[in-house]
Protein 1
Amino acid sequence: MPFIEGEDRLQIHLLPYTLDDFVEEENPVRVIDAYVDSLILEELGFQVYSGSKAGQKPYRRQELLKLYLYCYMNGIRSSCKMETETKRNIELMWLIGKLQPDHGTLSAFMKSNQTAIKNCLKNSP
């Protein structure tokens, strides 16, 4: 009995797929992207990075907010689960440009911007 065969994992394509090919035009993730890009985060109370600290460069607040909103809409509340989603969820890869912040970064972002996130959710359409 013949079966439907999947694509060989090692197959090279002449025209490779892009992440945009996997996210439909009507996908809600595009709404999150447009919504966050339209916000003025300083007015909502999000912390501003001063650029004077040594160490790793920070993630853009917009990207972390997009990640948080996507996970919130999909019932993912744990920062560890959010970290896992960044590694396996194609919609999320598209939304935040394949960034993979760790759970400590996500937890710190949510903790330091609690009021701003609430303001963002209150002001959403």
Protein 2
Amino acid sequence: MTHPPYLSPGYKSTVLRAPGQELIMPKLGPDSVELASPVFGHQELGRKDEDLTVQHAGEPLGERIIVTGRVLDGAGRPVRGALVEVWQANAAGRYGHLGDIHPAPLDPNFTGAGRCLTDGDGRYRFVTIKPGAYPWGNHHNAWRPAHIHFSVFGTAFTQRLVTQMYFPGDPLFAYDPIFQSIPEEKDREKLVSRFDMDTTEPEWALGYQWDIVLGDTPMEA
């Protein structure tokens, strides 16, 4: 099984939100919903959407990185024109929203959200800051590994997949119930990016490659 189960007791919040009964499939197809749903256009995206380091008056603090890869279907074909969104903590491990009360500094020059459309080869590319680990209260001395949240849209909000990308060699993997909720190690490794020297730009930013394969990359429930 590639995807984590809805109920993972080690990840405490799933106990409260996991469905207690089998899903009842609706009789109506999704077409009627999707026809009334938003559709994204190229004109709504700009350079500042994909470069999270230039969205404010000053530069954010932390290690600048480039994250790129391809969105592929199950047959390995590129998914063109897909909207890819990212959100993440800052270099100190804090999100820029009121619900995050972790006593780490906020960065006034880093919001931590971006988006882009995949190109003709299914490729996305973001410039950002490497996020920090942060405590999350799930269990004793609980810390989340550094990660970036990804979502991939189809043509409407009803066609959305959400996942997370991690960084290689993180010592927190073994202690993280979210990462460990994926039963097979080979499937967990599909969420770990790889350092890439060809993506790295001299004296400017380290580069990481990570592909999203629909139907194979583990997705969140």
Protein 3
Amino acid sequence: MLIIRPIAIIWALPYTILGLLIGLFGLCTRGRVLRRWPLEFYGGGVEWFLSRLPSDLVMAMTLGHVILGRTKAALDISREHELVHVRQYERWGPFLGPAYWACSLFLWLRGKDGYHDNPFEKEAWGE
């Protein structure tokens, strides 16, 4: 199992890099980081970024091994959910984004909710 962890980290790396860039933007704009694994950034530019996403309900999101939250409280509330997404990135790697959005589009075209009916979200919500 010792060799699997580095492979999972590398497999998710493209999204982790994007998450780190957004997190660094947050730090440059009075945001904060929680030094744990995975890294968690909140406030500042991270909050600004999340507030620009299509849904006003986004408290936090995961990109690879980085969790982005509007506030520290938002991270505390959503941590378990977001950690499931971290494991999904470790399994799906660079294919998670396209697979997630393809599922959402397919569901939406069938008249369903692209978020709540999405199997990736259902797994993260423990359904």
Protein 4
Amino acid sequence: MKISARNILKGKVTEIVKGATTSHVRIDIGGGVIVTSSITNEAVADLALENGRQAYAVIKASDVMVGID
């Protein structure tokens, strides 16, 4: 995966809280640090996110996106 964002934090999904249209995804990046991202429920399904899955918090400007290999 190549992207333009330079802030890519590797971690594991610890929690997914689904709402009506969006989910809050919590990623443990180590050292007791948790990054939370708000993404669509469709994105959670497309990425097959689940607790324990390795994922990346990709930070560009003020947005946090989630990516996987």
